[in-house]
């Protein structure tokens, strides 16, 4: 099935990752990269892979970038493999894709993930399965908090082999990204109906509990201590991300209290003169 698949990758300053990702895609006849005008060596590295076609677009959000890649880059294969620049296909997954024979009604496939810190796979990673392989004409991408996801008009099946999530960009870049991601996740939680929340989102709305809960979950329940320093590092990353989210939610609460405190009671408001229309 490999000759029916075009990988689609979004990039922005991914020099630390893109080479490893593309190495595992050498089987592809064509790869589409939608780049948000990288200023590092990303495009220089991409040039070493002749089957890559690069399209540049000013970034607005991940869903729009991905939909542009899906519809405006002349992908003509039946299937698209949507990847982040730090998703590295395992040899087992490549083998699974080679012999995959989807039923006609199946529109996509989810893949499980193995989270890595500097190349070390973690048993404590909590990255969820993601629909990465889908029929090109079966759906579109939508925004989902800080991320994006494909919405398909039919059944999605599970792949058994995993993808490595192995982001090796420096901590400074990760911290900068988390500020934006936390704000977007807070906005999503605040505008969503609580009735549809997952258990994790319900805990997040408690503000103070989520950072501690996720740290202990990763270290103890998921066995992060057995991952050594990489497991501790990962747990602290997750706790920090949840702490930022809690701060944005608390900021929203405090701003709401301030607006109520400063509001002029209706009975004390003086009637304003009505101006004659011009």
Number of helical regions? 8
The percent range for helix content is: 25-40%
| Low-confidence blocks of residues | 268-278
The top level CATH class name of the largest domain: Alpha Beta
Overall residue-averaged pLDDT value: 91
Characterize the quaternary organization of these chains.
single chain
Radius of gyration: 22 Å
The structure class reads alpha/beta
Order the strands across the largest sheet as they lie in space.
3-2-1-4-9-6-12
Distance between the termini: 70 Å
- How many β-strand runs? 13
State the CATH topology of the largest domain.
Spore Coat Polysaccharide Biosynthesis Protein SpsA, Chain A
The profile of the biggest β sheet is: 7 strands, mixed
- How much of the sequence lies in strands comes to 15-25%
Total number of distinct structural domains:
2
SSE pattern, N- to C-terminal: EHEHEHEEHEEEEEEEEHHHH
């Amino acid at each position: 099935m490999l000759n029916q698949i075009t990988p689609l990758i979004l990039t922005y300053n991914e020099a630390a990752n893109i080479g490893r990702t593309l190495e595992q895609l050498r089987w592809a006849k064509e790869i589409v990269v939608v780049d948000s005008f990288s200023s590092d060596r990303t495009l220089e590295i991409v040039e070493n892979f002749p089957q890559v076609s690069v399209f540049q677009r000013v970034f607005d959000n991940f869903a729009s970038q991905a939909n542009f890649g899906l519809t405006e880059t002349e992908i003509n294969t039946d299937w698209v493999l949507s990847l982040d620049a730090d998703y590295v296909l395992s040899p087992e997954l490549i083998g699974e894709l080679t012999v995959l024979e989807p039923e006609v009604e199946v529109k996509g496939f989810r893949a499980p993930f193995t989270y890595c810190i500097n190349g070390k796979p973690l048993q404590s990673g909590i990255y969820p399965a993601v629909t990465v392989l889908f029929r090109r004409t079966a759906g579109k991408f939508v925004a989902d908090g800080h991320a994006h996801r494909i919405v398909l008009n039919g059944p999605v099946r599970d792949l058994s082999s995993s993808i490595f999530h192995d982001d090796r960009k420096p901590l400074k870049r990760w911290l900068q990204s988390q500020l934006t991601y936390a704000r977007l996740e807070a906005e999503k939680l605040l505008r969503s109906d609580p009735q549809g929340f997952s258990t994790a989102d319900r805990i997040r709305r408690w503000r103070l509990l989520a950072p501690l809960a996720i740290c202990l979950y990763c270290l103890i329940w998921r066995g992060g201590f057995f991952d050594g320093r990489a497991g501790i590092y990962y747990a602290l990353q997750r706790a920090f991300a949840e702490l930022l989210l809690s701060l944005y939610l608390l900021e929203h609460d405090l701003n709401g209290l301030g607006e109520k405190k400063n509001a002029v009671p209706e009975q004390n408001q003086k009637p304003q003169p009505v101006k004659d229309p011009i």
